Amino acid sequence: MTKIFLALIFMVAVTASAGDLIGFSEKASETQQQLEKKFDTYLDANMMLGWMEYLTRRPHHAGSPKVKENAEWMAEKLRSWGFETEIEVFHVLIPRPLIRELTLLEPARYEAVLKEPTAPEDPVSKAIETEGLPPYNAYSADGDVTAELVYVNQGLPRDYEELELRGIDVKGKIVLARYGGSWRGIKPKLAYEKGAIGCLIYNDPKADGFYQGDAYPDGAFKHDHAVQRGSVLDLPLRPGDPLTPGWGATKDAKRIAREDADNIMKIPVLPISYHDAKPLMEALGGETAPPSWRGAMPVTYRIGPGPAKVRLKLKFDWKLIPAYNVIAKMKGSEAPDQWVIRGNHHDAWVVGATDPISGIVPMLAQAYATGQLAKTGWRPKRTLVFCAWDAEEPALLGSTDWVEHHADELKKKTVAYINTDGSSRGFLGVGGSHALEKMVNQVARDVPDPQTKGSVADRRFSLMMVDGGPESKKQARARQFQLGALGSGSDYTAFFQHLGLPTLNLGFGGEGRGGEYHTNFDTFAHYTRHRDPGLVYGVVLASVCGRLSLRLSEARVLPFDFTDTLKAVSGYVDEVVKLADDQRKAVAEHNELLAGGHYQRAADPKKKRRLPKPKSEVPYFNFAPLHNAVAGLKKEAAAWRNTMRTVAEQEKPDGADLQKLNALLYSSEQAFLGDGLPRRPWFRHQIYAPGFYTGYGVKTLPGIREGIEEGNYKEAQEQIHITAAAIDRLTALIRKATAMLP
Amino acid sequence: MTKIFLALIFMVAVTASAGDLIGFSEKASETQQQLEKKFDTYLDANMMLGWMEYLTRRPHHAGSPKVKENAEWMAEKLRSWGFETEIEVFHVLIPRPLIRELTLLEPARYEAVLKEPTAPEDPVSKAIETEGLPPYNAYSADGDVTAELVYVNQGLPRDYEELELRGIDVKGKIVLARYGGSWRGIKPKLAYEKGAIGCLIYNDPKADGFYQGDAYPDGAFKHDHAVQRGSVLDLPLRPGDPLTPGWGATKDAKRIAREDADNIMKIPVLPISYHDAKPLMEALGGETAPPSWRGAMPVTYRIGPGPAKVRLKLKFDWKLIPAYNVIAKMKGSEAPDQWVIRGNHHDAWVVGATDPISGIVPMLAQAYATGQLAKTGWRPKRTLVFCAWDAEEPALLGSTDWVEHHADELKKKTVAYINTDGSSRGFLGVGGSHALEKMVNQVARDVPDPQTKGSVADRRFSLMMVDGGPESKKQARARQFQLGALGSGSDYTAFFQHLGLPTLNLGFGGEGRGGEYHTNFDTFAHYTRHRDPGLVYGVVLASVCGRLSLRLSEARVLPFDFTDTLKAVSGYVDEVVKLADDQRKAVAEHNELLAGGHYQRAADPKKKRRLPKPKSEVPYFNFAPLHNAVAGLKKEAAAWRNTMRTVAEQEKPDGADLQKLNALLYSSEQAFLGDGLPRRPWFRHQIYAPGFYTGYGVKTLPGIREGIEEGNYKEAQEQIHITAAAIDRLTALIRKATAMLP
Fold this sequence. Notes:
Chain A is an alpha/beta fold. In chain A, 43% of the residues lie in helices and 16% in strands. Chains A and B meet through helix 15 and helix 21 of A and helix 15 and helix 21 of B.
């Protein structure tokens, strides 16, 4: 069904794009679109469903028998489709639990269940019970701690500010945090910084339990015993193998001692179900939690500390585990040393139909279709590389250690890295290098949406028109959506944040439903019922990614348009200038309210509240270097844009000269690298980083922004200069590229 | 304790105001402040606690033995304090329940409890069980209906828009609505308009159950069987006795037939506890309710309709009941025909410690202190009138029928009506005639806050600085807070909205806690524990109201400053102009999204959604009459303000001339009366009205605003002219007043 349906509407789509592909001549555009049309004919939802079913039959976490089996199965497929394929193994530290015990000791005893059941109706349940990992947080510390409990809401900086106003200290306590508001690893990290000795993280039914809908298998959501597993390695500090920081974890690599790995959590951390959280919450006394802290358990949410007292005992095996990366290459005919890399991880926390198999199956379909094209005699101009990463879940290990190990080669050869991960039904979302924004928009314009009349771009524009703010509406009317800024949370991190390689990360979502993330319920049956029945959008994802890879492999001039980079960076500059102004105003007002006695007079004397502290005034920053850098970029970006289309149509430069120009273009993202962000040198991109206190969530112009937000004003000023210099480097590079044109 | 404490800080307060009272000469200001200081010495929290305890010993709903006993007790007190006192009786229709039955028939049977228990620890519980009314909604229709159930959230217009998008019709169904978002009577009114045949209203624990804190008696909040009683007469159409619309319900008054009373609800309506609502919600199927519709019951909130099917059977006695208004007067020495009226109702739904006794006890204290002053030989210049209204709870009956009966006299004599109702601990809130804003601010400046250093005005300014938006902060910095606009919900309604008499409504709040409103738990024990322990703010309320009454009774020139009226009205004009512009833009965008297919393309095709309908374009209105009226008012208001202070210091005008001027001033609010608002002629104030679809909630410039909001654009334009004429009448009146000055 799907295939015929797609074929029909593809005809409409091809008409829509008018031979204007960026980086291609008009004639080459037409040839390219014919190629892509042919590519689409090899996409087959039924074949993809079969692969998904096979890959999710048994738990395939890193180190499991099935993860190796899957790697070998994929390698075999890729070889059969014509790719030079190898399995590259790294040996990485992944702790697995030996002891997990949680007991409420006072005021009444309760032994936490800590067990996630399976749905008997689901055919993979038996395999999960036999081979699956129990719920735990990877890189929690070992420990046996007993203390009073404090509820800290989501465990974020603003939550600790609330606690401080109430005079509540978590020092020596165990904190109970709920999932949400940040990447989970921020919760124990902050709890530790505040002096807590243990951390429990539970999923509140408000987020994805009965509050949202029926539990699986009746519905898509979590039941009362479901638990989200996940890593708590300090990923905003550095992902990858903790024992080989900055280099590949090969078998014989030099390794640091575990005690010296500064990103391993310092306190024991355990994720629990709301069934186990409820007795703890009921046992908490003290003040009622503020309204925004309350979830959907039928309990009055209180903060404590105590009288609830808990004992948390955890022990892990701390073993080195082989991670199996599958690397498949199809050599380019014209520029074999220019690599278009496509990747998705293959390990899961359990069987992971959504995460990651819904992303890897479209990647396999893309590789298959590419192989079929090759069987007709076609060859890519540049080398196509497909990577199935292992051990993403514990700490992006497979991809990070591969990137670290091959850093020099990748810096020279990588045209772009295109990443996917779990994907669903609905709307296309894309983040990454803004220089590729125009190409992404053209691809989105050329791929029809399977549920509506129109392209996936049309559908997205309609959503932006209906639900978006003024900026979204403006973009939708102009018919070009801006790429999102990338933080972390998937395998693009090392490529983008560490090496500064052009990167895209994409997927579909917004309409699938579910609370299956990192649970026993992320199964084939769940996915095909609640996320993307029939893999309708899986096929579309393959089609979109196929076009992205093929346009990058086939374009005469690589489709880098820096006016979109300018637009993004210039927007970020406006944001940090506004941030400084707003914060200056807010601090001044705060200090005025404090000095005027207003906080005291407005407070209820019957509630015990501490007065907030005065804050340091925010200085005026010298933003001139940034503004000058943006002005410089504006000029050169426009110059390049105006000439590149002509170049695509011309015969010169060609051969080695052309590929030298292209290599210069794809090295452009590296212009943004500095010596590393303050306190986390592994993260070197001056424009994008995961937030130090948000986790996956991105901070743009991170050095400047976090300097201002955290009150490191001297550092913020230094970072303005460093970031301006990075923008200047890009400007110089573009000038050089323009100069290479005839 | 309280008294000494108050005396101490009053010394600070008197220093704060510098003989500048509006309407008084400098010398008279000082005398007045001495009088007020003396007034305060007669306020005694212990005496007030005794009165509160007496008045709340047994249920005293309209028609009960205790409500008559309380009226007689108050009358006796007032007489003993030197007031000419009478009990004026009206005979009003108040239905009381004979049959209340609610059964869930399908998919499983459940008989609703419909009984509100009492707290055994509370000494009044036995009396409540013997004499109290069960939970019901007064003026529900009789009926015996069986139908499928639909959950309609709060039952507001926006909720029905959501239902419509889902293709869900309530026609022939029984709706389940939760309390909140509007006055309760809007819910059955809208349900009826939409075709429903019955309405259930429940209190969700999110609003004031376990979600907020412990239930009474452990804490302040509702337990699972608590139910809010209340009226569902269509009060935005017309309050007061439904059988005597527009005239007083005296014993022999002409009465219309009950069938002709257009404000009696047309369908059966019953309030239920969340204990009774939970099985109904659990039995609902269909789509999960949108996030903002979900409460705190541990259930997935679904919309239905069905499979839940319920039977609702209600029957009422529909009897005429005597309502006992206590009216006490102390004749003025200089202008006996100028009345300063103070009122608060005395009937409750059960024993009503908060509502209304926390308001009437300060009024009694004010009357007592006034009587004590009189015993020293002092006499007010103008007549002071104290009114304790009966039958407020069912439909503002006592006050409305009194006002209707005495309309001609009141229009001539009323200087101002000062209303209170339930009051609590925390911050002063005042709404009413903006011409009195300056006086209110001076009073607030002169009364110390009992919990903080500073006046009640200081405390309020600090709250506005800490929690307020830009407009609040601006007011706080300028040290004058704007009076709130009055809608309805208490006994000022007939004075203000029907007769256009200068009105103030005030109370303290923001710090007391509780879900006792209209339940069995609104008791002396609850109030003195959770609302205002020791009646500390009860004393302050008496002090504030005492000053308001005494300044109005003693001022040489009545303290009307129309520049504050101008400020308020001019702000409302800006709002309706912006409303029209915003709505025009929103409608245009809506129609564009619809025509462009954006709604369709952005919608999830797997969810059954109807497309919204196109909306009528919003025309451009001729706002010039309003702007011209405001410009005219500006000039005259400034002229009056500049001269009135001089007049207070001069000897002329005096005698009859002076009182003629004052009578002109207090007739100013009547300038705002028109012939009645569209479809509800009883409401005649062109500047303020309760919203037709919000209930108590005010709509300013109601004719214009509701015309725009509801798409009656022709009517909105007519109302612009009518409202401008009302403003012009005020301008002419002020010009006349200024011309009376020497």
